[in-house]
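Q: What would this complex look like in 3D?
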Amino acid sequence: MPELPDVEVFKQYLDATALHQRIAKTSITSRNILGNVSTARLERALTDQEFTASHRHGKYLFVAVDGTGWLVLHFGMTGFLQYFRDPKDTPPHTRVLIAFTNGFHLAYDSKRKLGRVDLAHTVEAFIRERALGPDALDPELDLSAFRKIISTTRRTVKSVLMNQSLIAGIGNVYSDEILFRAGIHPQTKSNRLSEKAGEKLFHTMKATLRKAIEYRVDPDRFPNSYLLPYRKKGGRCPRCGQRLRQIMVSGRTAYYCSKDQKRRR
DNA sequence: CCTATAGCCTGACGGC
DNA sequence: TGCCGTCAGGCTATAG
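A: Here is my prediction, written as structure tokens for the whole assembly.
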């Protein structure tokens, strides 16, 4: 699930709940979701410390640990955070459980274990090591920087949007949403986009991600014009009512409207 | 340079 | 009801 807007909402949730509380205990209940860190080292790094700030880059959430380092959270397809007091509210697939001295807990839940929990010395070093591109909502990723990215590759535009080394934060769902709103066919070759289409794509990308955060990624709050609620087998285009097409693009299922998103070469 | 595929994991769903 | 194959909004490694 979690793409940039989802992770941004997780960040706001964490900021509103888990900052500035002393950590009494850290329990790792699934070792294989850990990155380059052992159970013991992670527990040692967190216990008796507190979270002081957070930062998001693409689909990664970084949480500062007393200014000494960073806890890195990645959510895979099924991850989320839950802050709660009563132990019976512990989510069913909790992989890391942090108990604070105020009696509350923060759970990192990941049903499919495709997410990762790690430690990093600095955010910048982590981003460099993972070769992540600029965050999709970073103001430094402006129109001219975006043009450079899309013009230098012949891949399909959908795979460019989803490539975390080129632009960080967009996954399968939001790439479909952005292309739908921009009226661009997902298999259009990136470097073949017209100047006008490239500019439209840029503004649509920024606006779509910002709006999704504003709606707190709640599909019920999205305007009717969004593809997201209809993005399923048998779904119909919210604009023209036609059945949505379903194709594979770079190994993922892409949904689009063949009337509004014409293929051109 | 780019695409396709498998693998990591688990659970929901549909068909029989 | 129960079993089985397929699929799911992420990412990496590898082969061609």
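A: To summarize the key features: Residues 27 and 97 of chain A are 5 Å apart (CA to CA). Residues 32, 76-78, 93, 110-114, 153-156, 159, 250-251 of chain A lie near DNA strand B (CB under 10 Å from a C1').
Q: Very helpful, thank you.
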